[in-house]
Each structure stands twice: as structure tokens, then as C-alpha cells.
Amino acid sequence: MIRNILYAKYGIDVEEETRIGHYEACISGGKLYTLVPVGRIEEEELMERDQLATHIYQSGDRQVSMLLESKEGDKHTEIEEQQYCVLINDRLRSFRSRQLGRKLGKFHFRGRTVQFGVQKISRMGQWKSMWEQRMDQMEGFWNSMLYKQPESEFDKLFLESFPYYMGIAENAIQYLVDTELDDDPSAVDSGTICYNRFTKDTWDGEYYIKNPFDWVFDHCGRDLAEWTRDRYFRNIKTYHREVKTFYEEYQSVMPLSSFAWRLIYARLLFPIHYVECVENYYSSTHEADRLFLEERLKKMLNQSRELEIFLKEFYLNTEVPVKTMKIPIVTWL
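Above: the chain sequence. Below: its structure as C-alpha cells.
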């Protein structure tokens, strides 16, 4: 499909087809073109993503994917009632994973200098309401199952485990609320360009690109916490040194405030890994996926004490001066 769209709508002859994640892509004239289905995207959101990409590119980051204009001068095009955008990268190289923390710090630094108000993709100040909404939905579902006979092993595990994770979620929300009430944000706490879910794989791959359709506008703690959570679960025995180094690298660009540390911790405390496992299980129609998620939940429950230890030792492992910064400790861990 990309070959036809690029030629008909953009006047580009495709030399070599490839893939970027789950997107169709191609190379032509030493440049990478990526085809992104965008559904019925609002014009305001498309404009925001385009402006953010332009800002980051003009700030000196040449790995950013820019939105390509069609022959008609539009930033999106329609084929068979589906909207698409084409992204262009003119610098093709693979990602060097050394000093990922510093690279993320520089990306956030550039993102904080955006000169316009971001509205459509902003998640600033929305964590509490989004967390509460998801937990309320899950609690309602759990209540509806209480008086039914469990139909699967997963049902039984969910019924038994939900009160524990509900308690942890309430702790995370309270920790977030207390932070916003008791602490004052500093310059590092300004909104910046983040990823919906940043991990060590986000920039990795055959080509090192930064896709503006992966972005949200949020507090930097979002990316830091999600990277940390992902690193922890990849191997719960070997995370210590890598996590410590990551935060050292990040803070070589801009030190984190007590407000930022507390937001990172609140996000780590919120059990999104459990929430998504349950949501995915009950929305899945494939038996193989359900079996996989059942095994994941069993593993999660078996390792719940290890996660508590990780959370208890997080500030110590990252050498946060909790007394100097007056950061509260969660005592039940």
C-alpha cells in the first residue's frame, strides 16, 4: 500500500520497502518514509503533533520524524475512507543505547521549551482522574463477579488479588495528591514531550527515529517511571545498577526536584502492570492470549513481595536525599 500512496499522493518512487514496528515504511533517495494510519484524527491534534515535531527538529534533534506534505499541501491524506500521515526521516542510523538516561534528559529539555500551549495531547495533571477511572471500572467489574461461580483459574486469581491491588492503587493516588498539596514544582516539573510508554526499546531498532504519534505532553516523571518499571520487570534480580546509572545520566542534564521524585514514585506505586493484565485478559477473544495472561498474572502474584522490596528500596537505590528533600516514605512496604 505504501508504494501506491507515496507515488499517487506525494510523487515519490519507492526503492525499498521495510517496516518500522507495526508500520509500513520504505526508503527512497536515502530517506525513510513511514506510513501511519491516524483514524479520524482531529485537525487540532494533528497540528499540535506537527508543531511539536518541528520544534524538536529545529532545536537540533535530527532523529525526529517530520510530517510530510502531500502534493495538495496537506499533512494527511485519505485512501478508501482511512486517514494516513506520512513521516519522513532524512538521517538514517541505528540507535546507540549508551547513556540512554542522558539522551532522554536532552529530549525532555528540548520539549520543555515549547512556545505554545499544548491542549489536545496534554496529560498534565490528569493522572489522578485517569487512575481513579480505571480502578472504579475494575472495582465495578470485580463486584459483578463476586456472586458468580469462577469460570477459570484467572477468575479465581482476580477475585482473590483485586483487594490487594486496589489498596496499592489507593496508596499511589494518595501519594500523588499529597505531593500536589505539599510540594512546589520547579523548572524541571514543567510539561514536556513524553511517550505514552517509554522503554529501552522505544528508540531501538534498525532505524533510530522519534515518532510524534507516540507522544503525549506530560511531566517528565512519566517517562522515567515507565522506563524504570519496564527495566524492573525484564529481570527483577539485576535492575539495581542499571536503574541507578539511568537516573545519574538523566540528572547530568537537569537535576530532579523533590516534586519530580514524588511523582515518579507515585507512578511506580500505581499497579498498571496488574490493571493492564486484567483488562487485556477480559477483552481478549483468543485462547492463547488468555493462557499467556493467566501465566503472567500467576507470576505477578508470586513476585508481589519482590515488587514491594523494589518500591521500598527505590529512593535508596537511586540515592535520593529523602531527608533533605523532605520526601515521605510509604511505611507499609
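The first helix runs from residue 2 to 10.
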